Request: fold
Amino acid sequence: MSAAASDAMALTAARIAQRFGAENVVASSKELAAYEVDGMLPAATVLARSSDEIVEVLKLAAAEKLAVIPCGGRTKLGIGMPPARYDIALDVSRMNRILAYEPRDLTLGVEPGVRFETVWELLGNENQWLPVAPPFGERATIGGVLAADATSSLRHAYGGLRDFTLGMEFVTGYGAAVKSGGRVVKNVSGYDAHKLLIGSLGTLAVITRANFNTFPFPPVRKVFVVDFENSVAAVEFCRAMDRSALEPRLVEVISPEAAKIMIKLETGDSVESNLRLREDIWSVTIGVAAHEEVVARHAREIAGLSSEHNGGQMTMLEGDDQALLLNQIREFPAQVLAFDSRAAIFRIAVTPVSMSVLTERLNAASGSQKISSAMVLRPHGLIYFAMMADGAADDIARLGSAAEMVFRSAAEVGAKARIEFAPVELKRRVDVWGAVRPDIELMRRVKKVFDPENVLSPGRFAGGI
Reply:
């Protein structure tokens, strides 16, 4: 950084500290390192405690053309392209209150800095839950999970975040406090503008409150693991299960390479693993949650379908073993990054009918560049595909070539691919959002309405938004 740029950052930090109080501002370079985004540091971090303070920060930013990136648990700052500018990190982790919880109405209202583990504990005391299991679960916050539209294995049965987010309160890029949706299930007034924020990566507004529909916790929960020799057989078994009367809560297909990563991180130097996965076969994990009789029927029919589709051993898990495996599946992106911090992790939306073909093409793309890869398939329409760099001098170049092949292969089968996590060197070679979307101009107009001065996370979203 040049001396002039350093002086400008120091001046900006001093002005922000004067405006919001030194106790609410982080300005030392050592502490600011925790807010780095793709090699860029902000001039200062504002530790917001209320919606009113966020309004003030964004009004200042809009007036002085300062770029703001909202954050909380900071588990998803690596998602998206490098920011075009970055002046202020707006940390909402202090906004961590449960604002309203009505167990009998099955509704919950929280601030954005509330961690998911806090929500799970609160709802668990009432035998309820919020059916989303995002990666980085111990640190992930409500605001970040919504902004990133974090995926969840529970989407198979419950849908995504848009399906049970009842409403939000948020602050736009020009500092206007807005409410959208409601706080109860039957509220249908107005437009669901808040749903635009889900997956927008903090480019439209800063969430200050989120209201959810909660769900009763199923009385009996079991997990079944069925072995298959290859991905084609595993996916076909899942499609047969989908055509049946069975209603599993989650279905995950784990590649041998993904199992290897999970086992290694679970066992460390130990030889024994409790995951019930093998490193030489594809595993289909089926989660069933219902009354005892329904779970028993699933066990019988899953075994029958497995036999019809040349499945191997079927294992039933419960208790601690079940929890361990589900946690490993949920944390797959985090585990890949722990295994190789320079990995490129794709998130690919694909129709079930194209999943087998695309899986083979993904393996071909990594194999052509001699790059190791691993994947977890969600047969309802999602693939997590990770490619690991090996530290060689040309690893980024090979990752880039393989990534371009992945994007082409996805487009050929009508799938939508994006790179969710990647080293910044790869982002300089490949647009993590893939080809420009046909609706990009509409997206830009929406951005202009919510954030006319382009102060919120500029450049991080698709099309440079």
Remarks:
- Residues 3-20 form the longest helix (18 residues).
- The two ends are 25 Å apart (CA to CA).
- The chain has a mean pLDDT of 91.
- The chain has three domains: 1-217+436-465, 220-327, 333-427.
